[in-house]
Amino acid sequence: MSEDQFNLSMRKFLKQVGVTSQQKIEEAVRAAQAGSAPDRIKVTVTLTSDDIDLHHTVTGDIELS
Q1: CA atoms of 32 and 13, how far apart (whole Å)
Q2: CA–CA separation, 38 and 3 (whole Å)
Q3: CA distance linking residue 38 with residue 61, whole number of Å
Q4: Nearest by Cα to 25 from 47, 46, 44, 6
Q5: What pLDDT, in 10s, does the model give residues 8-29?
Q6: Considering only CA atoms, which of 62, 51, 4, 3 is closest in space to residue 29?
Q7: Residue 26: per-residue pLDDT
Q8: Spatial CA neighbour of 37 closest among 22, 27, 52, 23
Q9: What is the separation of C-alpha 1 from the centre of its chain, rounded to a whole number of angstroms?
Q10: What torsion, rounded to 10 degrees, do the Cα atoms 22, 57, 48, 10 define?
């Protein structure tokens, strides 16, 4: 695979991750707001690949108000 093909494939995957992750977070926040959602939520994303021995975790906060 050429470097250009690799970069395009990675960008496509990351776009899918970003879009679907945002949708899931928005759905969960809407469901939580039916009760009483906090002003900020803590989130964690874990990226893994057994094929290349990859394990990477990113944590952060998302402000809701």
Answers
A1: 28
A2: 44
A3: 11
A4: 44
A5: 999 999 999 999 999 999 999 9
A6: 62
A7: 94
A8: 27
A9: 26
A10: 60
